[in-house]
Prior knowledge:
This protein is α/β, with parallel strands linked by helices. The protein is 22% helix and 29% strand. The protein has helices at residues 13-28, 89-92, 96-112, 199-213; strands at residues 2-10, 34-40, 44-47, 64-66, 73-76, 80-86, 119-121, 124-131, 143-155, 158-166, 186-187. Strands 1, 2, 6, 7, 8, 9, 10 and 11 form an eight-stranded mixed sheet that branches. A three-stranded mixed sheet has the order 4-3-5, with no helix packed on it. Helix 3 (96-112) crosses helix 4. Residues 228-235 have low confidence and may be disordered.
Amino acid sequence: MVEWITAPGLVPYPDALAFMEARVADIAAGRADEAIWLLEHPPLYTAGTSARAEDLTEPERFPVYAAGRGGQYTYHGPGQRVAYVMLDLNRRGRDVRKFVCALENWVIETLAEFNVTGERRAGRVGVWVQRTDKAPAFDGTPREDKIAAIGVKLRRWVSFHGISINVEPDLAHFGGIVPCGIRDHGVTSLVDLGLPVTLDDLDAALVATFQRSFPEPGSDSDAATACQISGTAAG
């Protein structure tokens, strides 16, 4: 069983870390079910294990936290759905790359519920959308913006952290960092794309698509976890 938890209000980042630490320990010890925790944070930046100091361009703008996850700098704030994914890879296969690939697939499947085509890009982290409504880049290629970030950590093969999808955050708040170290592409959100999507709408889509990427271990569809991986990264 996977327990779905939705937090009301804005959850302080230290409280989220403490909750995940306790829940992951309980999952690893067999005292608790796996969990997906849906929440929003107040405006803040988090630094992954690959974060570079020069990518924090406005260190006084918002609080900055060391996250302990993979990846670089990421913004979290109101209007962005964070889904912390606490799953037991002892049951689901001890393959980190396939796990990250499944998270990417989950984001892409969720975006498709709103007729948004999310894509991977080799050498670039997160999930991206083409912006045909914007002028092409100087080399004539279509503009692309990041709509979702991915970053994970494992302890005793139980996962921490997870994904964040931009629904309607203040995109200007990303200006204090180089998001995930990517300097020559922007960020977007579902509302920025012209879609009147709410957090509740996105939550329903996340629930509806989850088992396509994370079927119950031993089920007939368990083979769906065998991702085709190309350029997968976390951040």
